[in-house]
């Protein structure tokens, strides 16, 4: 019996699987996966993860069933296996498939939980939101919480906040990568070599983020600590304010949230 069977092995599911292996939370031989894409199957084999011949086999030999397919195909993928999923435990990362939505088509005996992770789980620095409302047994819930804690930070979140909070942590890495790229471009413009600029920008963001997490100081206070009167930093802050950086980032979160509401 495998501990987890992954249905779908796309970017997010594979990041989680490889993250928990790297974190030594599970061994590769405790995981099995299935994907219709043979290239993804080859990727699984390269990491010594067993590949199921079909979903029937995966369900039969897995303690937890991990749903990692695209939201638009969740029900068409699972519908043929509703009976086989009876008395099984499901971990789902499919956006929009929260507890209440799964209740509409799964058997009452099928236990399930909705988790919204982000891609930095691959380097054990993820931010994963676990829906507070679920039907797992206590020991199953602890397993899920411990698994995602092994690959980053975890927050247990009320159902009504999952969409907005998940937008921040899920879409946020893309926004941060754009900030890293822009900061590096600015340094390159002034003569810094490209690879050095990426290192400086990435490490600076990582260090600043860690400082806020560990000190719990308001970001504005930490910003003020860097800004000497009449110095270069406050001049840069003025340029960011002129460019409406904060307003633009706020708008980015709102745009992503409202897009999801339309789906």
From TrEMBL:
NCBIfam families: proC. Its main location: cytoplasm. InterPro entries: 6-PGluconate_DH-like_C_sf (IPR008927), NAD(P)-bd_dom_sf (IPR036291), P5C_Rdtase_cat_N (IPR028939), P5CR-like_CS (IPR053790), P5CR_dimer (IPR029036), Pyrroline-COOH_reductase (IPR000304). Residues 161-260 form the Pyrroline-5-carboxylate reductase dimerisation domain. Keywords: Amino-acid biosynthesis, Cytoplasm, NADP, Oxidoreductase, Proline biosynthesis. Residues 3-95 form the Pyrroline-5-carboxylate reductase catalytic N-terminal domain. Belongs to the pyrroline-5-carboxylate reductase family. Pathway: Amino-acid biosynthesis; L-proline biosynthesis; L-proline from L-glutamate 5-semialdehyde: step 1/1. One of its GO terms (molecular function) is pyrroline-5-carboxylate reductase activity. The lineage of its organism: Bacteria, Bacillati, Bacillota, Erysipelotrichia, Erysipelotrichales. The keyword Protein biosynthesis does not apply. Catalyzes the reduction of 1-pyrroline-5-carboxylate (PCA) to L-proline. The gene is proC. It is found in: Cytoplasm. It is an enzyme of class 1 (oxidoreductase). This is Pyrroline-5-carboxylate reductase. Gene3D superfamilies: NAD(P)-binding Rossmann-like Domain (3.40.50.720), ProC C-terminal domain-like (1.10.3730.10). It catalyses: L-proline + NADP(+) = (S)-1-pyrroline-5-carboxylate + NADPH + 2 H(+); L-proline + NAD(+) = (S)-1-pyrroline-5-carboxylate + NADH + 2 H(+). Its EC number is 1.5.1.2. It comes from the Bacteria. It comes from Massilimicrobiota timonensis.
């Amino acid at each position: 019996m495998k501990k987890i069977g992954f249905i779908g092995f796309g970017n997010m599911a594979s990041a989680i699987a490889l993250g928990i292996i790297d974190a030594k939370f599970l061994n590769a031989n405790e995981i099995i996966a299935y994907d219709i894409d043979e290239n993804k199957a080859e990727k699984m084999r390269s990491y010594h993860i067993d590949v199921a011949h079909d979903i029937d086999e995966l369900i039969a030999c897995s303690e937890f069933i991990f749903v990692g397919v695209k939201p638009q195909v969740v029900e068409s993928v699972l519908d043929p296996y509703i009976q086989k999923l009876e008395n099984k435990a499901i971990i789902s990362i499919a956006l929009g498939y929260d507890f209440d939505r799964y209740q509409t088509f799964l058997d009452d005996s099928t236990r399930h939980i909705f988790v919204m992770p982000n891609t930095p789980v691959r380097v054990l620095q993820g931010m994963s939101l676990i829906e507070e409302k679920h039907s797992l047994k206590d020991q199953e819930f602890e397993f899920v919480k411990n698994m995602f804690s092994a690959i980053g930070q975890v927050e247990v979140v009320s159902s009504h906040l999952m969409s907005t909070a998940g937008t921040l942590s899920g879409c946020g890495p893309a926004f941060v990568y754009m900030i890293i790229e822009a900061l590096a471009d600015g340094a390159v413009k002034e003569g810094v070599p490209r690879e050095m600029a990426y290192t400086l920008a990435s490490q600076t963001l990582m260090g600043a983020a860690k400082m806020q997490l560990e000190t719990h100081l308001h970001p504005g206070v930490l910003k003020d600590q860097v800004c000497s009167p009449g110095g270069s930093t406050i001049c840069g802050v003025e340029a960011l304010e002129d460019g409406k950086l904060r307003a633009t980032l706020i708008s980015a979160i709102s745009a992503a949230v409202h897009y999801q509401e339309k789906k």
